[in-house]
Amino acid sequence: MNAQNRYWLTVWLLLLSMAWTTAQPLRLTLEEVVQMAREQSIAARQAATLQKTNYWKYRSFLADYKPQLSLNGSLPSFTRSFIQVQQPDGTIAFQPVSNNNSLLNLELSQNIPLTGGAIYVQHQLQRFDNFMARNTLYNGIPFAIGLSQPLFRFNPMKWERKIEPLRYAESNGQYVEALEQVALDATGLYFDLLVAQVNLQIAETNRANNDTLLTIAGHKLELGKISRNDLLQLQLSVLNARKDLASARQTAEVASLKLRAFLNLQGDGALRPFELAIPVQISTFPVDIQQALNQAFANRSDAIAFGRRLLEAERDIEKARKENGLNAVLNADFGLTNRGARPVDVYQRPQDRQFVEIRFTMPIMTWGRAKARTETAEANGQLTIQTVEQAKRTFEQQLYTQVTLLDMLRQQVKLTAEADQIAQNRYQIAQERFKLSDLTVTDLGIAIQDKDRARRDAILALRDYWQSYYTLRLLTLYDFERNQKIEGKKE
């Protein structure tokens, strides 16, 4: 970013800051921010839209295995042209034709997942109008039942009925994970702003204290209790405090804008400044590593995907084996048929109608193509098994690390909070000692640095803990604090 762009960004942030300071602050806790993010953030809405899409995809899959009623045909089908007609002497004559050949077919069909075939019942009516001869004929099938059954072939429907439910369950897990990821992202932005606000408070306090100490130092210099060098050091501290204050204010405004945009705040909430509470209340709920593993493999979309990927590998192997051999299809059709000059003639004393056909393909010479395809599918299957196994081990290690990290960070929060209190008390004592000329400027500066570092460390420890807390929820989709599975929002 060049100097001009930085200048205008600073001006815009200052103007926006002035507008916000006139509004009442928006007081929020971490839990409230997380809930707002889950309900109204753009990321949460995208997750809900994707889940809705996956739901209707699954509904479409289920509908494919229910009876399908359809009406098809051609109405009208008019032709006026010259057609080629071979004469008895072998010559060709072009005869004029003008006709209409319309067809309507009503069919009820049902897929058979167990065998991969389909059975159907149909009713058909055909009308042929010869406009040149001025006559009309009807042909129809009052009733027919048929079967189309692949023989010795790969059955995709059998595998779809195994894989698609897993895919849908996987999408449900992904939706809950997306909401937990939103919570984790909101937590990160919350603490980015909270840290920036704490730094701003520290900068404001240091600036005010340094101004006061500089005034006191001026009087002490007149009394000869401090040196000119100590006074200059305090003056430098005042300048640095003012510079830190300006930088902290800009950082806080940028962090506020990021959180506001993520929460997708509208109306009055888009203008009010944030006032964030420090989430110091930490529950000491136990987390058993074996329970965490069990919940993760029961709830996570990754765990469901492991099983889906293995099934897809088995499907591909079977497909490669069966499509390289004899492929045949049995088509059978039994029913009634008739013709006549009127539509009712089709339904009066219809005649039997039978059709049976077996179509097959037998590869004879493939130059090893069939074996190569099968070996490739089997090798890919082995690779999938190995990849899934490695992914399981990596996931288990990640989860184990997260559980142990949560316990360690809980202790860190307690220790840094105690250190922060000690550092604040020590600074108060140091400040009083300086006023009484019992402490050097250097020692006072060290006390200030320790105070600021301890406060920042306490906030950063809280940030690490809460991010670890929501990461564990994301990895297991389980709420250990309430001992229940995390569910997505009910639409």
Describe this structure in words.
This protein has 491 residues and is α+β, with helices and mostly antiparallel strands. The protein is built from 9 helices and 11 strands. Strands 2, 3, 4, 5, 6, 8 and 9 form a 7-stranded antiparallel beta sheet that branches. It has a two-stranded parallel ribbon with strand order 1-7. The chain is elongated. The mean pLDDT is 85.
Are there runs of 5+ residues with pLDDT below 50, and where? none
Measured by DSSP, the beta-strand proportion falls in: 15-25%
Q: What series of H and E elements makes up the topology?
A: HEHHEEEEEHHEHHEEHHEE
Count of runs of 4 or more consecutive helical residues: 9
Give the helix proportion (percent range): 55-70%
Describe the structure in brief.
The chain is α+β, with helices and mostly antiparallel strands and 491 residues long. Helix content is 59%, strand content 21%.
